[in-house]
Structure formats: C-alpha cells, structure tokens
Amino acid sequence: MPKLFILRHGESSPGSPDFDRPLTEQGRLDIKRFGLKLAEREPELASEKTILFSSPSKRTSETTQLLLSGLHNLNISVNYIEEGYLADPGTWIKRIEKLPSEIATCVVVGHNPGISDLITILSGSHITMTPGACVKMELLINDWNEVFEGTGNILSAYRP
C-alpha cells in the first residue's frame, strides 16, 4: 500500500507579500530536527523511491530543503508545484493520482487549510495542522490512481 506524508511548512515570519515569507529561526530549527527524527522513525523514507510535492512559496521551499537535509535520501524526487501555493485538496489529489506505481511514498509540503482538508478528505479524521506538523498515512489502494475520499488510514502524527 502506498504511503503518504502530509507536512505543513514550519513556523513562518509575518510579512507581505505572503508568498515571500521565510521561516523563522525557530521554524528552521524545528524542521531540521524533524527531518532527522523522521529519518530515524520512518526508514522507508531513506530506502524507498519517494516523490515530494511542494508549494513553491519561500516558507515551503525552505521547509522542503531542511527536511531533505535531515532525511539524507538521494532517491527523493522533488517537484515544486506552481498551483501548490495555498492549494485546495483537489489540487494535491490530482497530482497524487498521477504518480507511477513504482513510487512507494509521496510527501506533500503545503499550506493550511488545504493540507488539513486533504487529511480530512482522505482519512475522515480532522487534524489541525500547526506549523511543522506532519501526518503519515497508508492509502488503502493498490495504485496511486485509485486514491479518493476515505482511502487513507492515519498511521502517525508528528509535531515539532
């Protein structure tokens, strides 16, 4: 069964324009630590073929790069999705369902409320995604193109 990690960007600085807001120092520290913790607790991220979809905003890009530095996985393919900025769940699902079957794990790095709503749609569970929070779910499907409402089973949740 495919695995899906859904991560909200780390704590970000206030400011305008919204797209260009960077992570705070605490946000950088939290995500860096989280990447190391995730590498230790989720060995499939270090060994399986993984794809990561990220919003292209400054705070999600920083989150993605810090996460990758902690994971140390050269098999992770990163895709910055233009329409991922403040995306709704349907945008992410359209990307996920197009994944090739050889991809075992997908990571989504995005913004609220879209990623919280994505978790709710896929699993039926409402989880408030604070900055830096991550949910791991298995998808009760054989292939990515079968993903739809209610096919997710939450396995774990992480907070910084």
Write the layout of secondary structure elements.
Blueprint: E1 3-8, H1 25-41, H2 44-47, E2 50-54, H3 58-71, E3 76-80, H4 89-96, E4 105-110, H5 114-123, E5 134-139, E6 152-158
Parallel strand pairs: 1-4, 2-3, 2-4
Antiparallel strand pairs: 1-5, 5-6
CATH topology: Rossmann fold
The fraction of residues assigned to DSSP E strands is 15-25%
Strand order of the largest sheet: 3-2-4-1-5-6
- Order of SSEs, N→C? EHHEHEHEHEE
Structural class: alpha/beta
Tally of helical runs: 5
Domain count, please report it: 1
Low-confidence stretches: none
What is the CATH superfamily label? Phosphoglycerate mutase-like
Distance between the termini: 27 Å
Q: How does CATH name the architecture? A: 3-Layer(aba) Sandwich
The total of beta strands comes to 6
Q: What does the overall shape look like? A: globular
Integer average pLDDT: 94
* Rg over C-alpha atoms, rounded to the nearest angstrom: 14 Å
Largest sheet: 6 strands, mixed
Instruction: Indicate the percent of residues in helices.
Output: 25-40%
Give the class-level CATH name: Alpha Beta
